[in-house]
Amino acid sequence: MWERLVGEAKHACATDPALRAIMTEAILGKQDFYAALSGLLARKLCDSTLPLSMWETLFAEAKVGCPAVDAAAQEDLVAVVARDPATEDILTPFLCYKGFHALQCHRVGHWLWSQGRRTAA
Question: Serine acetyltransferase N-terminal domain: from which residue to which, for each copy (predicted)?
């Protein structure tokens, strides 16, 4: 999955060089799928009261506490591509589909809740 996502991001950069910055920030500058996903979600969720570093820490803790969140997210992405006839690649839902993003945030929130961290959840 990670290799395919990186390949699609590189292809997007080659097709439209204006996309290089976002592809590098979101995917090409990351070490693996979960790092890219958690970074993307953390940037979407952060604000002045809930900073980026807090979200990055929560996502990292979730992966350590429940390693299955990584594989589940990848399976969700495969399911989106398989079931949505309008989806031709994995790059678009990874970067843009709010439902996919919400499901991944729910997984992390559920893990936090199950750990007794209800306020953080």
Answer: 1-105
Angle at 19 between CA 18 and CA 22, to 5 degrees: 130
Q: What is the pLDDT of residues 62-120, one digit of tens each?
A: 999 999 999 999 999 999 999 999 999 999 999 999 999 999 999 999 999 999 999 88
- The answer for residues whose C-beta is within 8 angstroms of residue 20's C-beta and 6 or more apart is 13
Q: List, in order, residues 6 or more apart from 56 with CB less than 8 Å away.
A: 38, 39, 42
Question: What domains appear along the chain, each with residue ranges and CATH number?
Answer: 32-114 (1.10.3130.10)
CA distance 100 to 109: 14
SS in 3 state form for the chain?
A: CHHHHHHHHHHHHHHCHHHHHHHHHHHHCCCCHHHHHHHHHHHHHCCCCCCHHHHHHHHHHHHHHCCHHHHHHHHHHHHHHHHCCCCCCCHHHHHHCHHHHHHHHHHHHHHHHHCCCCCCC
